[in-house]
Specification:
- The chain has 3 helices and no strands.
- With about 70 residues, the chain is an all-alpha fold.
- Helix 2 (about 40-55) packs across helix 3.
C-alpha cells in the first residue's frame, strides 16, 4: 500500500480489502471524531451559538469551521 498523498486527511481508506490494519485505523478515526465533537462546557457552547447566530449559520456549521480550520470566525 502506498503512503497517502500530500494533504490527505489521514482518514480510513475506502478500499479496505488489501489493508490488514483497516479496522484498527477505522477505530482510531471514529474515536478521534467522537472526541472532536464532544460537547464543550456550557459557556463555550453558548458563546459559539451566539456567534453562529450573528453570522447566520447553525451551531454545527460554526463548530465545523473551528474544527476544520482552527480559526474562530
Amino acid at each position: 500500500m502506498l503512503p497517502p498523498a500530500s494533504r490527505h486527511n489521514g482518514g480510513p481508506p475506502l478500499d479496505e480489502e488489501e489493508d490488514v490494519n483497516a479496522s484498527w485505523r477505522a477505530w482510531h478515526w471514529r474515536r478521534a471524531h467522537k472526541r472532536a465533537w464532544k460537547t464543550p462546557p456550557r459557556e463555550i457552547a453558548l458563546r459559539r451559538l451566539a456567534r453562529a447566530e450573528e453570522l447566520g449559520i447553525t451551531y454545527k456549521e460554526y463548530t465545523l469551521e473551528i474544527l476544520e480550520r482552527g480559526k474562530y470566525l
